[in-house]
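Final report, Chapter 2: Outcomes

The project's central promise was a pipeline that accepts a single protein chain and returns its three-dimensional structure in a standardized token representation, suitable for archiving and comparison. That pipeline is now operational. To close this chapter, we reproduce one record exactly as it appears in the project archive, with the input sequence first and the structure output second.
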Amino acid sequence: MRHRRSLLLLASSLTLAALGCSDNSGPSNPPPPAGTYALTSFRNPPNPALTPPTATGTLVLTATTYDVTINVQGQDPVTDQGNYTISGGTWSQTSTTNQGVQSTGTFTYNQGTGVLTVDVTAFSVETISAWQKQ
């Protein structure tokens, strides 16, 4: 049940930062390019990270919107869509699926590896997710 609530917050929060992506090439923290990303891990501290094949997911970004689906074995898929903004290393998102849910935090995009990480908090629950550009 805790993971289901965490998944809902993850999807509503989206969903992704600073896990040590220090070898970026280009700007110090470039914005992630639009496109499709595959989930590589997510966690709600202090719980351990969930990774494929236990947890899988897809994140689709445009310049201002996101569409995320998270699947955890034994649970119904969780989806969310909304708008996001970034500035420097900050990430802010507002769900259009779950009205009133707003999440804020940080992000890092590593151009060299194509890994996007986001660390956001909504309703006092932190969610850290990592995504691989496809």
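Archive annotation: Residues 14-26 have pLDDT under 50 and may be disordered.
This record, like all others produced under the grant, will remain available to the consortium after the project formally closes.
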